[in-house]
Amino acid sequence: MGSIPVLESNAPQVVGHSDLSSIFTPKRKLSVICIGAGASGLLLAYKIQRHFDDFLLQIFEKNPAVSGTWYENRYPGCACDVPSHNYTWSFEPKTDWSANYASSGEIYDYFKGFSDRHGLDEYIKLRHQVVGARWDDMEAQWHVQVNDLEKDQVTVHKAEILVNASGILNSWRFPPIPGIKSFKGPLIHSAAWPREEVDFAGKTVGLIGNGSSGIQILPAIKDQVGNLVTFIREATWVAPPLGGDYQAYSKEDKEKFKSDGEMHLTMRKAIEAQSNSMFGIFHRGSREQSELRRYMLGRMQERLQNKNLEKVLIPEWSVGCRRLTPGTNYLESLSDSKVQTVYGEIIEITPTGVICDDGKGEYSVDVLICATGFDTTFKPRFPVHGARGAKLEEMWKDEPQAYLGLAVDHCPNYFFTLGPNCPIGNGPVLISIEAEVEYIIKMLSKFQKENVRSFEVRRGAVREFNQWVQSWMKDTIWAEACRSWYKAGSASGKILALWPGSTLHYLEALREPRWEDWKFDYTPGRNKFAYLGNGHSTVEALGGDLSYYIRNHDDSPIDPVLQRTVEKDK
């Protein structure tokens, strides 16, 4: 019998045990840079602080305050169209909302209070804007260029992990209309509203846009102006408030919310369940869509009471193809004697007014408000240079392809929140951010516990996921011919800003990482199983219960997908 050949191994021959601790003991401080201190950035800080002991976290925020979009957007009437008691983190309710719908200022206070309560300010540098990021493969770190806006001085900061939590609705822009820079009166964008009060008394005000902000601005300023001309390019479905008409809460209401936690929780869950139950409307030809369309048509006709306005405002496409926006008093305001509705494409802005394609000449205005939204292309606002010479701005030049709305290939140790094809319009959004951040925490836990050098989502996983998304979208109302920021402002392009399923579906998809979709790299020369340590468990090292697994019944979790059961409280 011949001798057995000895095969060469690439594994390190010397492991070394002298410095080993118990299993999963991290060998370094976790270093993270986060871009943005809006809702996502604040939640990330809270979760890192909760889950890790040894970490260095830096959050760079361009604004002079936290809260992101709720700091920036202060236009008249600015409010959240989600019932206030459900525009909170799932685990941290607020009992003293002033009404069932909250203003932007009140939501800013909630997130600022969240930051204060949990001591998150120590990680945040305000008035610091990220202007570039580059992955260094030799160091396995991100080099992040940050401009101190007070000093106008750029410095480079390094971290193993980079999280872009700047969001999608944060880069406003004026519409590319010929002559817009020639306008001589006040030119205002809804997302950059002046901090000082704007005087509309006796003036003719032009309002471009009938999206979410335009629908809120018009009734809020109508009584302040001399006249108002609203320029509408497209029809849109305007819904009644999702949680009923506006209702201010009394002192007694707030005290009851605070004293009766179970009642408050039951109310919050009922509102959330109602929102989650509506996903069927997005399926083309569904009974839910037909019933909703019939209801919406009747409500809009009832509120408009104007056949001419009905013709230009009520769409042919399905309810929800473009983001469905609740509008308190918007439709009624269009029939006000002060308000003139102009339907058509704006072809030019002059020093004194607006010219449309209706052949009626110039509409003279003293003030021009552009409620025209944001750059929703998902392209980064600064250069992001990943591994192997990749440039994210070039990778996403024509179409942003991401993985589960939170990662992209060629960018190791890099995450973003509310990225391409996340459920930004599928249902409740804050819980989606929670799911993304929890997913990131799971990845960072593996990174630390197993002393991973870098991780990167596989290109094949990104490609196949995006193929699935676009194939699935064909049977939804979002694929109809309506111009929407879900499709980067086009009427027939790919759907880039929505998840292929419900919000609950997204939560389930992100519950556990699919490790096979990721590539993990370890420090050369170090055995990847060194995390096993000195042979002792965490329980032994920390002095815990040494018989924790002994019990009187089997309480191990059962997969509801395989058993087709759902625990009522899960």
Automatic annotation (TrEMBL):
One of its GO terms (molecular function) is N,N-dimethylaniline monooxygenase activity. Keywords: FAD, Flavoprotein, Monooxygenase, Oxidoreductase. Gene3D superfamilies: FAD/NAD(P)-binding domain. InterPro entries: FAD-bind_Monooxygenase_sf, FAD/NAD-bd_sf, Flavin_mOase-like. It holds the Pfam family FMO-like. The keyword DNA-binding does not apply. Belongs to the FAD-binding monooxygenase family. This is Phenylacetone monooxygenase. It comes from Fusarium austroafricanum.
